[in-house]
Amino acid sequence: MPAKFHTAIVCTIISLTIGACVARAQQPLAAPTPDQRDARMKWWREARFGMFVHWGLYSGLAGTWDGKPVGTKGGMEWIQQRVKADTDTYAKKAIPLFKPTPDFARQWARLAREAGCRYVVFTSKHHEGFALHDSKVGDYNAGSVLHRDLVKEIVEALHAEGLKVGFYHSVIDWHHDQYAYELSKQLPHPLKGQPYPNGQRDHAKYLDYLHAQVSELMSNYGPIDVLWWDYSSQDFQGDAAWRASDLMKLVRTKQPGIIMNNRLFRIPEAGFTGMGTNAISSQLDPKYGDFITPEQHIPATGMPGVDWETCMTLNTTWGYSDHDHAWKSDETLIRNLIDIASKGGNYLLNIGPKGDGSVPAESVKSMQAIGAWMKINGESIYATTASPFAKLDWGRCTQKKLDGGSTRLYLHVFDWPKDGKLVVPGLASKPVKAVLLADGKALATSVENGGVVVSVPAEAPDKIATVIALDIEGLPKITK
Ligand code: JFZ
């Protein structure tokens, strides 16, 4: 089998290149001061809205295996695991269906910019193990198989649209023949429960390969803004599973400004209380990562003091499926974005392009609907901070400090008042002015028993969310 022969060569190359990388990575790196962390988090904290992209060999399979739908719900980027296919069987079926058009990346980039996203995080490698870059340390990548460097194409397209760039990189790998899946009972693998088909595995060899590919990704594409690791379990995480601290040092050495999520770890100090996508706590020691990533849900009360980003699908799968039609409404998506901003978090909203790289029409429509809303109301999202109110019956609030010490409150109204009076309960600050973002017109304000009242038109200009910018003196004073 040529694959084995390749592996032998590849391992030799790895041990040579890795030697150099590891030596560099192990030089001590000073812990960032809070100021340094604030500096590297600044753009991300202001961005508030990003586009996630799950795209790989699974995209061409589109949720179908042997002519049958594998399911109508859930992550079809896991299709190899769902049908328990070994990597050769999977690759044989999937590779012929993965046919990126010449300009797919420019379509993604344009869509992200139109939607109002400030950054894009895409899968440089998902659990299936197929890397999108032209890797010199293996043959299961776009360079070897398609003679294209898809990472380069995507990074260039995103930069051309002025977007920040992130790599989602899976440390789980269902392809590599030294990935020792028996070491974890909790992490998924298509062959789980079966003995290794190729005899004893040396996980250290897989880690050399993982580090070498990450080193390529951090060296060959200019400045990269985010590294979004995925993922660890309680029984397999951190240094033991991935040589995580070395990996992070390697990344920071090559990319001093980069920020990373916490998914190389699965311990309480790194923001995890257990397994499952809900098991997150509001604490994160920066040595384990810069931000926490709630998946498919919005934390009820945000996470004060911790940087967080909710990632979410537009339907129910991350990777493209022909069979998933459970698309979220524009109302849900726009209100989610507002809800997240009002709690001080970021929204990373996923598209799953098809095998040719084209974006499903439903996803294009949704992203454009958000973009239309953002065009009018974007200033109420970008560079805002969490609401000063514990709860507002009619909607949400974000805020921004203005020059001269006053504050602008952005009132996001979901339920429009029937009597023409929007009551901001418990706001004891003096109102200065109020403006409807939809038309730029001024609205009258008054102070009535323990709250500020804004006089609004009879009809909501936007049924999904109308935004009123209310300037007040000083910082918000709230009495209840
Ligand atoms: C992971 C991936 O498995 C999934 O395909 C997708 O990429 C998503 C964004 O991230 O999903 C997870 C990660 C962690 C858990 C479950 C799903 N977990 O801890 O239970």
Describe the protein in words:
- This protein has a seven-stranded parallel β-sheet, with helices on both faces.
- The chain is globular and about 75 Å long.
- Helix content is 30%, strand content 17%.
- Helix 1 packs across helix 9, helix 6 packs parallel to helix 13 and helix 9 runs parallel beside helix 11 (244-254).
- It has 480 residues and is an alpha/beta fold.
- It contains 13 helices and 17 strands.
- It folds into two domains: 3-378, TIM Barrel (Alpha-Beta Barrel); 395-472, Golgi alpha-mannosidase II (Immunoglobulin-like), CATH 2.60.40.1180.
- A hairpin with a 2-residue loop joins strand 15 and strand 16 (451-455).
- The model is unreliable at 1-27 (pLDDT under 50).
- It binds 4-nitrophenyl 6-deoxy-alpha-L-galactopyranoside (JFZ).
- 4-nitrophenyl 6-deoxy-alpha-L-galactopyranoside binds next to loops.
